[in-house]
Design goal:
Elements (H helix, E strand, L loop, with lengths): L5 E4 L9 H16 L3 E4 L11 H14 L22 H13 L3 E4 L3 H6 L21 H11 L4 E4 L5 E6 L3 E6 H4 L3 E4 L7 H11 L4 E5 L6 H10 L6 E5 L2 E2 L15 H7 L2 H11 L11 H4 L13 E2 L6
Helix pairs in contact: 3-7, 7-8
The structure holds glutamic acid.
Glutamic acid binds next to loops.
């Protein structure tokens, strides 16, 4: 049986959408649509303080304005809702229970400040490789620490001394030794918020996603996620990581700096003009002329898209 392709947009609405988010959404849309597949929109608002509802609604309007349509998600509905992570806690709780049953979850009392102060080794992305400080606390110690700190502990997943590797559909082979290069990672923070790594796996699987297209900054999260797919006995999707767009002087775009935000662009360009320029940067629009998403379907090919980060030339936007 030929499985229907299901792609997704998974924005974190912590600000207005920027060109990098749009580039990624465009590729996700084209990749799924070209296979005759569907697209799901899921709002990744686990961090409700940083992701107020009004940003999510704005993001939906922006995607609609760009012509990047979705078949399942906010405003459309579908069988696998709710489509906001802030409303999906029970699913994460259930997955956590399955991991706990396997004896792989332990409470951790380390604060972020303590971890940084402990000069634990860091990953390339700046995160601490967890040194295992709380990995072997006894039940009595856990009770004592809870009492002393007055804190609910965070929860971590024990990871194996094993290289978890896969072949990215765009970036090629990638692997990571979870114990050496990552360490036991967070499933739930001490304030009760579930971690992105767990939520994204639970949701992509529950929503039948067959291909994940997202920024290259998440390539190094994929081995952790694949490990979760294995433990939860879920079918992983194919992964396609997309180069990041940079400012012309080589900085990463950020919502915080209002870099290349849509509010400014919308006053100056039509949706087709924006998409046409992005497709040009992606190698599948020969000029930088206006093209709608539907028009780009004929020319999009993964092997035309660069693998290195892409500085946006001065004057293009
Ligand atoms: N919510 C994440 C973001 O906006 C994307 C997560 C993912 O695609 O797996 O950066």
């Amino acid at each position: 049986m030929n499985m229907e392709a299901v792609g997704r947009f998974a924005p974190s609405p912590s600000g207005r959408i920027h060109l990098g988010n749009i580039f990624c959404s465009l590729l996700a849309w084209l990749s799924a649509r070209q296979k005759g597949g569907r697209v799901v929109l899921r709002i990744e608002d686990l961090d409700t303080a940083r992701c107020p509802r009004k940003y999510a609604r704005q993001m939906e309007r922006d995607l609609q304005w760009l012509g990047l349509t979705w078949d399942e998600g906010p405003g459309v509905g579908g069988p696998n809702g709710p489509y906001e992570q802030s409303a999906r806690t029970e699913f994460y709780q259930a997955a956590l229970a399955l991991l706990e049953k396997q004896g792989l979850v332990y409470p951790c009392f380390c604060s972020r400040a303590e971890l940084h102060a402990a000069s634990a080794p860091h990953r390339e992305d700046g995160q601490v490789i967890y040194p295992g400080t709380c990995a072997h606390l006894t039940a009595a110690e856990v009770r004592r620490r809870s009492r002393e700190t007055g804190r609910t502990p965070a929860l971590r997943l024990r990871v194996p001394e094993e290289v978890i590797s896969f072949t990215d559909g765009h970036m090629g082979p990638y692997g990571e030794n979870l114990q050496k290069e990552c360490g036991d990672f967070l499933l739930r923070r001490s304030d009760g918020m579930f971690a992105y790594q767990l939520a994204v796996v639970v949701d992509d699987a529950a929503m039948g996603v067959t291909e994940v297209v997202r920024g290259e900054d998440l390539l190094s999260s994929t081995p952790r996620q694949l490990y979760l797919y294995r433990l939860l006995d879920l079918q992983p999707p194919a992964f396609f990581h997309v180069p990041l767009l940079l400012t012309y002087d080589g900085r990463r775009l950020s919502k915080r700096n209002a870099d290349a935000g849509l509010d400014d662009l919308q006053d100056r360009y039509t949706a087709a003009e924006i998409l046409g320029k992005l497709a040009y940067l992606g190698g599948f629009n020969p000029g930088a002329g206006p093209r709608t998403a539907a028009e780009l379907l004929a020319d999009f090919r993964w092997d035309r898209v660069p693998t290195a980060d892409i500085p946006i030339p001065e004057g293009l936007f």
